[in-house]
Amino acid sequence: MNSTPTFVALNDGPSTLRALARKMGGGGGDRRGGRGVHPPAGHEHRWTEAFWQRLADAFLERAHECGMAAWHVQRVVAKKRDPMTHALFLDEIGAPTPCEAFVAAFAKGAGEAIQRSFATVGFAKDALLSGYPRLMDLLDALHDGLLKETDHRTGGGGGGGSTGSTISGVPPATRRDGSDRETFARAGDAVAAAYVARVFQRLSEPVNALLSPSTLQSLHGIVRGDFAGAGATAGTSRASEDVRRFMLRIRQEIDAVGGGARPALLDKVVQCVGKALKLMATKAELAVVAAADARSFSSDAPATASQKTNAAIASTLEDVHDALAGLVPMLPTAASRRALSDALEEVARCAIEATAPVMRAATARCEDAIARLHDEDWAGGAPPGEACSTYMRELCDLLAHLRREHLKGGLGTAKGKSVGCAAAVGGANPCGDPDRRPSPSTVSATALATRCLDFFLRHASLVRAIGENGKLRLTKDLAELEHAVSAHLCPAEAAGASYKALRAFKPLLFSTPTRAVENVEIVENVPPAPLLLHLYSHAPRMLQAPYERAGLAPAQYSVWMDAHCDGDVWAGVKGTLDAYESRSRGGGGDAEEVIRAMRVVGAAIERGGRRR
Question: Residue 533: which of 454, 598, 469 has the closest Cα?
């Protein structure tokens, strides 16, 4: 089938453009050295529209006429029979059918014409590259127009079947299953790769500006939150504007390909977004300061310059992460959702790693403060007063200092900035979606909160001698810890199982061993290891705890517990029980109730119960 008339609009493009240039008063362009035709200054838009109008005429009129002519031939041969054999002429023709031949010829001819135009440096190449989505629109419109007109005439009404067969036996000009649409789209393959590369280039430009060395200093204003000075305001405004521009560029690229109208092209664009985000994460990783002062933390020292830089980088990454997190569920294909989600995980990881040095130092200081719980006199002492214990007051001061100096950018201001960025990209409001991906700063703060609750529960369970006043003071400290975590890190409930364990520890303090192992709230929420170790507070001193038998201090045993599971703790407890019973001539003696309760908990561990 001769397809030459269909592609004349592209094949004679250079001569047409030169004629247009002369008509508009511009030069015909210098053809020497392979340079193509370019529009006169100020006429770029008019030339572009004329170029695409010519392509539309080629695709939607001439190619459509050729496709309809092929279908009319197919319609005739599908009804006429050989007078000798009475076989349908369509069956005699076999494959390809006239319409299939047209689809193949058009895709091949259009692809070659587009490739020739794209190979010539000049206006035609630039127009095809920048307007590649418009090219796909024209190809889709040609496919849909042929299908709609021929399917309607044959009465198919959009029925099934891979070949689009209808009641009258004449298939439409293009298949309903979308295979011909993909064939048409391959005509633009010469432009597709270059267009995707250009998308990545456009997305990379704001990334390079966002984390360039010259802008890192201005990012400090985000973290300090001190907007009284003009310098801080300018730095904050510049960084936020860079993030907003990046979000806006992403939205423009997605809108340019028609959102979900062309899933395959959208997948490629979202993959470019993912590559740009990973580039951002890589640049941020290289910009993170690893100096010694980035790992320091003290309740009486402000954030260092290195920590401010790292926090500024983390805050910028968090803005991007939070704004795009609302976009993931809105993407129409699984491939695009997965590509963006994977890239956001990388951004979140880098944001967390940027502040990891100071968070690790803060965690160590908080653990040291909690470990000083054993310096208190829990066996005696006065009832609790208005103030909490010394170690708990130190812990609360540490958390308040961490919030004030190091988490202000993440917890205090990120939400407001992210809402604006989410609006730029068209995503959902990150503050109003309870199922959204958590912010990196939230992940870091929640991890520290969980560690504080778990560490407090562990060391409180290691206290051997505890009187009634001691229980009351420990209960007050528990409430102070919950309040401090909620005020300075995250809602205590966000710690999940650790929060439930902390709440269940209060009734455990005032329960006998038997009632403790029979209380559903305690058994279901307090991990087996702290439950076992707390029961030693009800036992006589002759029944040594595992750390006492090993000659370890509570802090040393806590380090050991970090590397071992509940089963290992039970093995140590079981050893002390067996040794005590052997010394008591086979009986539990004064510790009989405690030993019985411990063996109940141990049996649950051996059965494969909850492990933590």
Answer: 598
pLDDT in tens, 381-390: 788 877 789 9
Token digits of residue 391: 């170690």
Q: Write out the DSSP string of 122-185.
A: THHHHHHHHTHHHHHHHHHHHHHHHHHHHHHHHT-TT---TT---TTS---SS-TTSHHHHHHH
Run of H or E residues at 198 = helix 189-210
CA 289 – CA 311 distance, rounded (Å): 10
Across 45-72, b (16+ Cβ under 10 Å) vs e yields eebbebbbebbbebbeebbbebbbebbe
Rounded CA separation 560/554 (Å): 10
Q: What is the distance between the alpha carbons of residues 240 and 418, in angstroms, rounded to a whole number? A: 9
Task: Indicate the SS3 state at residue 1.
Answer: coil
3-state secondary structure of 191: helix
121, β-bridge pairs: 35
Rounded Cα gap, residues 76 and 399, in angstroms: 83
Q: Which helix (H) or strand (E) holds 106?
A: helix 98-119
**What 3-state class would DSSP assign to 88?**
strand
| Distance separating alpha carbons of residues 374 and 552, to the nearest angstrom | 13
Q: Are 420 and 244 in contact (CB under 8 A)?
A: yes
Give the separation between CA 598 and CA 591, rounded to whole angstroms. Answer: 10
CB 453 within 8 A of CB 501: yes
320 vs 316: CA distance, rounded Å: 7
Nearest 5°: phi and psi at 88? -65, 140
Cα gap 497→495, rounded to integer Å: 6
End-to-end Cα, the chain, rounded Å? 72
Segment 227-250, tens digit of pLDDT: 333 334 344 556 677 788 888 899
**Confidence (pLDDT) at 494:** 94
Mean pLDDT of the chain: 81
Region 12-22: mean pLDDT is 45
Whether residue 593 contacts residue 511, with contact meaning beta carbons closer than 8 Å, is answered with no
Rounded alpha-carbon distances, angstroms, from residue 77 to 71, 93, 101, 357:
10, 9, 14, 77
Q: pTM score, two decimals?
A: 0.77
Which residue type occupies 2? N
Q: Which residues pair with 81 in a beta bridge?
A: 88
In this predicted structure, what is the pLDDT of residue 512?
Answer: 94
Measured distance CA(99)–CA(66) in Å, rounded: 10
- CA neighbor of 70 nearest in space, from 117, 1, 166, 24: 1
Q: Where are the beta strands (DSSP E) in 192-234?
A: none
